[in-house]
Amino acid sequence: MATNTEPKLKEKLEEGLSTASDDSPEKGPKITISLGEDIDFVCETKPDKSPDKGKTIVAYTAYKEEREEPFKITLHDLMKTLDASMADLLPSGLKDKSINFKNLMVIYRKEQKTSKGEWLFVLDLDIATKIKLKSLPVVGDLISDEVGKEELVPSLRLVVASKAFSIKEIRVLNDKIPDKEEEEEEEEKEKEKEKEKLIPPMPVPKKVGTDESEAKRSVRKGLSLSGKLGLPDAAKILSLSISPQQAEEEQEELAPGGEEEEEEVTNSNLAVWFDIDKTFGPFSLKQIGFQYEEQNDEAEIAIVIDAVLKIAGLTLSCDDLGVGISLDDLTPSFKISGIGIEYKNPSIEISGALLRADKEKNGIKYTEYLGLASLKFDLAGKSFGVSAIGAYAYYDGEPSLFLYAVLHVTIIVDPSFIITGFALGFGYNRYLKVPSIDKLLDFPLVAEAVKPTDKKFSDDSELITKKLGEMDKYMPISIGSGFVAIGLKFTCFKMLDCFALLTVALGDDFEINLLGIAKMKIPTPAKDSKNTSCILNMTMLLRARFSLSEGVISIEGQLASDCYLLSPDCRLTGGFAVCLWVSGPHAGDFVITLGGYHPLFKKPAHYPTVPRLGFHWKVGDCLSLKGEKYFALCAHAIMAGGRLEANFKLGKLWANFVAEAHFLISWKPYYYEILVQIRIQAGFGILGPVSLGVQLHLWGPEFAGTATFRIIFVKVTVEFGDQSSRLPEPIDWESFQSSFLPPAKSTAQGSSTAADVCSVVVNQGVTKQLSPATTKEVAFVVNPKELELVVNSAIPSKKASYQKNTQDTEPLPVSNANTDFGVRSMGIKKEQLDSSYNIKITRKTKAGNSQPVDRNQFRFIPITQDVPTALWGDAKVKEVTVKGKKSERILLPEANDQQFVKNILSGFRIVPQIKEDACSTNSIDVKKLEHDTYCINNVYAWQQMTAFSGVSTDNEARTTAINNNIVSTNTQNKRNNLLQSLGFNLTDDVKLTDSVANSFVIAPQIKA
Question: Is there a single domain that holds both residue 225 and residue 367?
């Protein structure tokens, strides 16, 4: 709606102040602003009691009860007539917005000493429907009529201030608002009472008479929302600033309104919460919130409450229950974010919670409902319990949900094995994220079964929000995905409490996880015993995983943080992992570790993190002990080691002891290196440290090494054994072949001495196998359209060729393959190694000879993979003198050497060449292909036939006729010709004699 900004409201107010008398109030001038309809501003000017202080003019337009339609105003355009800079601070949801209102008032004041105008703009909103507690969802029908009939917020207004006003200043401005005109008969009755204002004044606390309280800020500079809570005995002023504030203004809180001067006020971004803590019968009101929200330039005022309703043992709590008022039409819409419920009696306990959340993902907005529930009851003398979590959302046109429930029940299978619970869950259009093993106890599907919370959902909204946030973290919406989960909770020998959970994630990322938790305490504390001390407390976490997308098979185990031995101060740590990568970028890699890796080993990102096997024991205030060890086997080396540390401190006296050993072992060539060192230090105050240490460095298998001794500043090194044996000798081809290449195949002609390096597999397209796989030549029937052969070699290749005929070959493209590799364990460098892959395809002729197939009939797609550097890495050699003779030795791999040679050619995928169409059909007019059906009359000529009637008197004669004719030569010839044409084998499939006639109870009759 276009707004005529003339006349300028500020100029007219200035003019009214200048023309008004200082002696008495004066009405005028009359101001009219056109906003699609005429809005008349009536002005009254009031000087202060001391005229030299200042004057105040009040311009207002009062709501007429007889008016059918409310006033409408474009707030931004009207504000520009007062202050253009203030109008620009309006939120986007209020700019160019036509707002319904019933009262509009501008209080403009100018003090003589400053001659600067200050003003307060008040707009009373015309809400379409009264907001009552009875209208609220869920709890409305349960609230008493006495409380429910009251309006929740009787008045709601927009306030714009040119400056921040204190309580004292607001009292002055309120006093300038004109009084409401009363009838003469009522004037006498109102003399004893304070006169009612024509426009409702700005709310302020009751006057207590102290200057300090009167100086508190009541209205902030800029735009704010103001409302009044209408509940009996809970009169509160709701105020929320929605304009950008200066830093110094943000630090100072507004003075509270209402009956009490002090109250708890919690501020957040465009929202403010007030503590109420009032009870109206069964209805308890905890907090009320005032919020301003914008979405896509659509503005809404929200009034929300946190309330509890208690009726006959049932407790119902509501989170963010309230009403939203759109500023487009000021029509309220009721809403609720969460519900909590609790019911308890001697035989049953029920508690639950439901949360509604508006979310956005990938630019798509949706609403999600998340819930928790718990049920405990007694049946036939046994206790049962069920807890469940779940969620539902409709996202991008698809439903998405998950549900997980745990049944707590005791089933004695055997005294040594007792089932204590079951778990079952599923998800549709949900992806299940299973956390790493160290966070397993926080995984919602495990936590619900292992350590269900004892808190009541109706009393703890933070618990609900936390749990539902975890569900959203571990089970997010993913269209096309799903999962199932099944679990078992049990105890063994009443000492070991276990829970096992099997999860299967479906969809693009197919994954299977087997999760396990085992807890043990020795001795096991008695039930209901206050003495919970024990000498051993263990919690073992286990996870077995298979991921199709990552191509990994892994088993991990780890001690939880609560494990200890002998004393809670003696903490135990440790873990293990076995991982094998069968596909993907890490195919061929593996790792086995117990306690982690070598200290200098830089763990690849895809390797699991495993804590050291060890303990940390603080023995009293003076002594602490720490020990750890590890073992790891990966593609290029074996690592092992350990460390023992003791620290003592008593006053100024201190001492420590460290002993550690680290092993690095490689194989083929077999080699080991051991580093052992011991260090002792001590001191007293500023004296010291006095240190003593020894380091032992060993290598082999030809045992040798060095020993280094340190005494304070003195260092001595002693060598022993053959120092040149530190580097291993390369192995020969026979050793390499027997150790690292596949063994020779046994054939009908005997065992071959050559390694079975190459393999051929029909990967796709097989329709039938004609001969057993154990024969020399295996025959298949294949579909040429789907045929795919895969050829592989255990020895990587640098080049490849196709055998065109007995003499000529044709190179195959392998441009993307890496050729920088050698045979490290044999001491062969990359430039010394030449390996070639040759492929030959033949077909048998009618004469039984083999004929080469043209290469153009097939496509050859290279297959590359990563191979261990320990086998196929570039050899690093050094020439040394051993016992007077020169010899090449292999340099040892470093702890962080590259583990794999990337992108090495290992074989080919062979598929038939796709031939282009030799020809194409000419275009055909569609009309020539059109057809329709039509009726042809009298096509069939129906004939009358006499029904067959059997005769039972000549049964013996019919049997004799069948007996004589069924094996006659004429009948047999006709029958054999018919059966042969149908594909029957007369010798195996047909056996018919004249005795068949005796098989009939009644011989068949045929009409002649």
Answer: no
Whether 428 is covered by a domain: the verdict is yes
d(CA 638, CA 628): 17
- Asked whether residue 787 is assigned to any structural domain, the reply reads yes
Cα-flanking dihedrals φ and ψ of residue 995, to 5°?
A: -70, -10
Q: What are residue 171's phi and psi, to 5 degrees?
A: -60, -40
Residues 175-206: b if buried by 16+ CB within 10 A, e if exposed: ebbbeeeeeeeeeeeeeeeeeeebbbbbbbbe
Q: Is residue 840 part of a domain?
A: yes
Report residue 226 CA to chain centroid gap. 40
pLDDT at 926 over 60: yes
Tens-digit pLDDT profile for residues 119-151? 888 877 777 667 776 666 656 666 666 666 667
Residues 6+ apart with CB under 8 A from 24: none
| Mean pLDDT computed over every residue of the chain | 78
Residue pair 487/445 in contact by the 8 Å Cβ criterion: yes
pLDDT at 95 over 90: no
pLDDT digits (tens, 9 = 90+) for 600-646: 777 877 889 999 999 999 888 889 999 999 999 887 778 899 999 99
Residue 856 belongs to some domain of the structure: yes
pTM for the predicted model, two decimal places: 0.60
Burial of 605 (0-12, 13-18, 19+ CB in 10 A): exposed
Radius of gyration of the chain (CA): 46
Q: Which tens digit of pLDDT belongs to each residue from 406-416?
A: 888 888 888 88
Length of the chain equals 1008
Number of domains in the chain: 4
For residue 197, give the DSSP letter: B
Of 325, 324, 456, the residue nearest 387 (C-alpha): 456
Looking at the structure, do residues 399 and 462 belong to the same domain, yes or no? yes
Asked if 65 and 152 sit in the same domain, the reply is yes
User: What is the helix (H) or strand (E) element at residue 98, kind and residue range?
Assistant: strand 98-111
- Find the domain containing 959 and state its range: 955-999
Query: In a 3-state reduction of DSSP, which class is residue 205?
Result: coil
Residues 793 and 899 in one domain: yes
At 81, the amino acid letter reads T
